[in-house]
Amino acid sequence: MTEKATLDSPLIIAGKQYHSRLLVGSGKYKDLEETRLATEASGAEIVTVAVRRSNIGQNPDEPNLLDAIPPDKYTILPNTAGCYTADDAIRTCRLARELLDGHDLVKLEVLGDEKTLFPDVLQTLKAAEILIKDGFKVMVYTSDDLLIARELESMGCVAVMPLAAPIGSGLGIRNPYNIRFIIEELKVPVLVDAGVGTASDAAVAMELGCAGVLMNTAIAAAQNPVLMASAMKKAIEAGREAFLAGRMPRKRYASASSPLDGTFF
User: Fold this and answer.
1) Which residues are catalytic?
2) Which one, 26, 205, 252, 264, has the greatest CB density within 10 A?
3) Closest by alpha carbon to 21, among 47, 44, 38?
């Protein structure tokens, strides 16, 4: 690593430091063992859990997801996946807080369309305001609209997470300029959430200057999820180092790798 890269500061979310800038989901795996192995291979320290779709204690007779991703090893990030109204999202966060003994860090997503899974921005703003007043530390999935991102930050969200492409699409970073605008304007961490399909997508997100990347389908839907998790870990690290190093300027024409200026013949 370069000297500049070694001086990189940790990712800080809601006052807590993290060494990994890769956040992973816990759904869509074939079983809890694959979930455990892929999560370990990713090196992630924050793992999202869809409260409405996963058992984290509300069904005592069923396998508990927290056995695969224990809270003493990972920061569990309850999310409101599958919620289409602010009221549903708020209820889901409160249920998670009850199940997780007062846990207050949550990922808010309020969907507005079943086909694209784009966020309902108005419902998201409504839910975020209420949750923050209720003492939650809110990481929020949102559109790539700079003005909305500013509003979410000003409300008190601890991280803003614009989509790079539709959830689960694997299309990669379709909106680099919009994401870059948000990164440049906001002071809270900006993380890409949704759209990553492979390791190069994760690297591009980090090269843009994102504080981190959250993904699930890109790993869980791979032919070898554990190997893909390892690839994503490396891609996040490489992209971050490239961002810190500063890429060479783009040029229209080639320049000699061994310049002839000032040489003798």
Assistant:
1) 107
2) 205
3) 44
